[in-house]
């Protein structure tokens, strides 16, 4: 229909006319937002429109361009056509100083077909060839970088593509600085590894560790590490990857993971796993020998249980909470580290 209207009027159509509502956008912008790739291709290539089309026209409400909305809605053919028309579009920023690379990385490849996924990968490579400096760009309001955005999708291939454009090891922005870069306080200083850990992406966690991610770098707001957030959310595979990673094999500058590092509230990964009822994670910690000797507080109250006390203590609690099977697993192996208020996992489990 667009072709018929334009050609029958011999080009006497204003292709830059704007809507009265929804951002006062152009036909090109609307076509990109609706993923009408054939219309976009025609508008950019027709002899009637190619010399007058305005690819730089912005949505007046959020300042996004046609290329941004095309990337956001997954119209990769539209993005390709726009880059063919003018490669400099890759450099232009939209809402919150986001560029086309940010929008492309936010699309989770798992929701795409295999063909669309390959198209996305090739398009990201193309954008980085046009403007390699975009790999270091950040979203303005949160200072989240491209690696953190990619880590949030759970797709290791996106990370491989990004890091492949860093292999020249830019001395002004080395890999370790980039991969351990924090966002700002609005998102609690999240890092790529923390983002992957809290979402349960064990393959991404493994990849980031292999490339130098700091396993002990915590959130700035709560002082919680990747191990802590994975234990809190019940991601047993992530916990296993973090605990069993061979740092020396990968020439990492980090020697080990700090299992006993506590949050600002004095909670360790073992405490939070108990609090959330993740018995499989607690059991895994015990198999790794995470124990501390029996201690008593100033009032003579037991902070930690010895093996001789476990059966009677479990029986007492299970009568009240009806959780004998979980409690036996929980206490059979333990000598716990206390919190700042003397609470230990045994105290916390009684609050389930």
TrEMBL record:
This is Ankyrin repeat protein. Keywords: ANK repeat, Repeat. ANK repeats lie at residues 188-220, 265-297. It holds the Pfam family Ank_2. PANTHER family: ANKYRIN REPEAT AND PROTEIN KINASE DOMAIN-CONTAINING PROTEIN, ANKYRIN REPEAT-CONTAINING PROTEIN-RELATED. It comes from the Eukaryota. Gene3D superfamilies: Ankyrin repeat-containing domain (1.25.40.20). InterPro entries: Ankyrin_rpt, Ankyrin_rpt-contain_sf.
